[in-house]
Amino acid sequence: MRVRAENDVWASPLDVSLRAQRGWIWSSLHIEGMEIRRLRGLSHQDAERFVTAITHAKAVALQRLEADLGVDEKTLVPLWKHVVREQSADRYLTARERANLLDRIAAEKKRLDGAFARSRSPHAKRFTISEELKRAILYLRALNHDGDRLLRQRNDEFVERELERWRGFFAYCEERALTDEQARAAITFEENTLLIAAAGSGKTSTVVGKVAYALVKGIVRPEEILCLAFNGKAASEIAARTTARFRAMIADACPIDPAIKSRVRELVDSGVRIESRTFHSLGRKIVEQVEGRPLRVSESAENAVRLKRAVERCKKEPKFAADWLLLQSVARFPKPPEARFHSEDEYVEYLRGMWRQRKLGYRNKEFADGILTMGCTKPVRSFEEVAISNWLFLNGVDFEYEAAYAEGAEKLCPGATWTPDFTYSVRDAAGVSLIVHEHFALNENGEAPKFFKNPKGYAEEADRKKRILSGLDVRHFWTTSAEFTDGTLFDKLQVRLKAAGIVLRPRSSEEVLAKLKDIGVLEDFDLVGRAVSQIRQNGWDQQTLIERLAEQSEPARARLFLQAAWPVAVAVNDLLKADKCIDYDEMIRRALGYLRGKPDLLPYRFILADEFQDTAPGRGEMIRKMLHAREDSLFFAVGDDWQAINRFAGSDLRFFREFGSTFNRRTAADKQCALTQTFRSNQGIADVARTFVLRNASQMPKIVEAYDRTREAVIDVRTYKTEREPEALINEILTSWVSQHPPGRKPSVFILGRYGRYHAGGLTAQQLAELDEKWADRIELLKTKDNEPPSLYTTMHTSKGLQADYVLIVGMYRAEHDFFCFPSEREDDPLLQLVLPPKEALADADERRLFYVALTRAKHRVALLTQQQFPSPYALELLHAHRDGTVLFNGTQDMPPQCPQCDHGLGFKQYNPAKKKWFYACTDRWECGTTWSL
User: Fold this and answer.
1) pLDDT in tens, 639-690
2) How far, CA to CA in Å, does 399 sit from each of 50, 131, 429, 519, 520?
3) What is the side-by-side strand order in the sheet with 225-229?
4) Is residue 826 domain-shared with residue 776, that is, in the same domain?
5) Does some domain include residue 681?
6) Which of 17, 667, 684, 727 could form a cystine bridge with 711, CB 3.0-4.6 A?
7) pLDDT, tens digit, for every residue of 461-505?
8) Domain of 714: which CATH number?
């Protein structure tokens, strides 16, 4: 009803009461329920008509109210009952189910808001509103307002109720009863569930328990389950354990609920079988299913031969052949960043380790202080000089390295010696002329590296040499590090040589490769092979890789590398096709292609992935395609980002850290669970390892509670000085552990190193064999491979997933002592960044996680062997951070003092034989170098 006045006034007819009052000439209306209380000046007839109209409007409004309440009843009560029924269902509601419920409620929002207003109207009292409708309105409005939170809360409450109902089942679904954390993870069935499992927390038991629960509960059928494991052994273990536990649960002695036991018996009688595979096995299955024929799998040795065949095929193209030789010689290794070096000696030692010429150098003292190159008989002393020397040889340019330049020396400083880096002989009309080429280690700002003994003096002398060279002969020239870095050096060098009359005569491939072999450098297929593997298995396209070139630390070198790697990848694919076989990379590549075209190829609805932190792009995409093929698919990923140690093989931690955004098909479709209790390491080891790995801020934080609460004296940092000491020290430590171990069984011990047996932290392969023989009767040795005998020693990477009573970590020293150090300074070639996941902000993130893995293999004790003059920064970090008795130093709580000068060094005892006196020396001998009295 609208009444026109100065401003329009509205009111519902149901809320208005009218009474007409007749006067002598006019009538007036008395109104209740509006701001305007009285209308005057109406004719008697208009007033009566007005009252009649309002009375009729009231009747119509009441009829409409009654009708709307009826529609509310028919619409909202069934919806409410459906929602209640779904909420009361005996299952975890997935994001899809929650979204469907909330979408249905949202679709009736207008009806729901109107029903709420109508039910609150005083006129509704004239009608009977059912209690169901009242409850439906309140219930649905609450869900419409805060449904996501309420339904998640409902799921949490369901998990707790289910935990109590199925407690007996979870007590027997594995050999050891599942913890509440494990059981909650088994019950949680979000669309995408990520289980973050601490080392030794029983993640495989949780996977087995979840599969068993899903089958007995009837959530999925056996043929809809796929377990994906990182290796074949883990895959077969999951399937075998599930079957074995089902058989154990139907035994008479197993006191689980009779109804549950009956369901388990049905599964056993039906011959239930869980499909558990590696990604490669799954890829092969997909390819064979689509192509309709079995495929021969190429052996590893065959793959290596095929890679070389592919390279040889590509070499028939002159451009590729030239690029390949440049890659093998001039661009063989990356230029190391200056910031990693403290001295020129450290720099040269690093380069010699990089070029694998240490042993050759030790045999020939003439080569002990530099790097052998193809171009000259003398060793050169800088990375860039190595590249220039090899480039000159490659192009048939003869030169002398650091030959005396008397004419220039007289100008530079009478009586001094000047030995330019490169000297060329040119025959012209006047006879033979010498062309001098200096290469200055100066950046774009004209600055020398900071690790030089006198950077400023070096730059000043370089300026003097430039002036002298310019004045003596215009053909003399110089190059700089800045030109090497920006990729222009060799183009400029070619122009300079041509201007000086020096002719380039490129050598043959056979001559270059033979010369490389002479200096101890073999033709390298490994780097290109690794890149080819990543390109193929992850389905990289060439344009994407070209676009990534600009991001690389050495773009020119990266472009050269890609120009070699891409055609080799294409050639490998062609050769596989011609050989009518498939390799492991092809299993992933081809299967991913088929899944992209037809995602619903496979019947799986519930996918479980173990060691999920090690997922590579191709494998992650396979999972995504399978999940997105079905609306009702479920994904359970298990892993630990603290143990992600396979980035070098292509693993991408972003799948783990960005789990929801990667796999969710709708909002809030992911759930995280955690296993924080470890049954392996004691609390002391767990605490030290946790503190250490969390120095990387990108690691996901979690608490780790150990079943064994021991904290005191669980890690011992032991130092030694000479190469003869490690073996004796190991025997001393093993003797102590064996004597302390409880009787009844032999203790298990790992000796862990960063590298294989031939670089085992100062121990020779012969010494390792002698240790195995000596301790075999008293220590349980580790068998890592079927075709190899058990041994105390294995690598840190191989130890992943294993455990021992005691762990001894060797090789903990800096590169100045041995290039094969830990943490490793043998970084992957930056060229691999083209095809690998991006590196983390923390430079040693991978090595830090590897040390965490090594520490957490131990149940009772860990010993670290570090070289006293060049101690590992990781050993020092433990000594710095844990001075509460958890970490020992040389078997005692007498910890080394902190350096009084710097905030990061420790004082290790040293002996001065001249003074016959002990003193402390700071472990940071380069930046600090402080010594002080005991």
Assistant:
1) 999 999 999 999 999 999 999 999 999 989 999 999 999 999 999 999 999 9
2) 117, 102, 20, 18, 21
3) 275-278, 225-229, 606-609, 634-639, 192-197, 670-675
4) yes
5) no
6) 684
7) 999 999 988 888 888 999 999 999 999 999 999 999 999 999 999
8) 3.40.50.300
